[in-house]
Amino acid sequence: MSAENGAGGEQSASNAVRNTMAAGAGCGCLLSPVALIGTIVVVIVFGGLGVLLAPLIALILLFGGGGDSGGSSPEDQASQAVEIFNGDGKGTLDEDTVPDDLVDPIEKAGALCDAIGPIVIAAQVERESSFNASLVGPDGEKGLSQLPLDVFEKYGKDDDDNDKVSALDAADSVLAQGRYLCDLADQAQQAIDDGRAQGTALDLALAAYDVGMDSVLAAKGVPNTAEAQGYVASIRAQFAKYAGVAAPPDGATPGVTPTPTDGSL
Fold it and tell me: Is the pLDDT of residue 232 over 70?
């Protein structure tokens, strides 16, 4: 998503989704999971950011999605997953998709500003650390959110009230992530308003989290690199899961113990 196609890339992806699904419906192809995967592949090839949706769609079709599906079919859930992928990530977090002790900090971090939500925070934590609170990165980044040391020093607080500020404390790490992402989103929105960048504040903020705001501003949008665009896409690809539309089968989410459905403990 470069400066030239930043705002239009997401729209073209949505158009591709709509057009290919309409074509599939016209011939009855959506009745077949195999045909639906073929339809989504078209979206993946022509929709740019949809590149990482294939595993998500396959998961929905194979396991019938997850969460409160309201009796909707796998095909409907797959369509909804694509819509959520292209959305703002500000829906309600499915609490069963994250470890119990992270529900509160993730929801608090997601409520820090209008530009983000708990689904965004959860998806980014998975991307950064796979929910490993003790992870130490190659450049000394620590904890769930893998913030650079100087960034955590600026945005980190004693959010768990244990009289210390530590990136290895789950709440401290996740709330610092939220504050930083909100700051980046504010900068991104200002750049968009000033005509210095194109795209959405969320996409620009996510890209800046990974490659830095200077790189985003220099590109006048999400840089047209595999690293920057892949980072944004990989986080968006998890939105549906954390919204409960495509929750994984038992044991597939790091650190999450599935709740028994038969009344057993």
Answer: yes
Closest-CA residue to 246 (of 74, 40, 31) = 74
C-alpha of 136 from chain center: 22
Answer whether residue 79 shows pLDDT above 50. Answer: yes
At 159-195, the pLDDT tens digits run: 999 999 999 999 999 999 999 999 999 999 999 999 9
**Residue 1 is encoded by which pair of tokens?**
């998503």
What does the mean pLDDT of the chain come to?
75
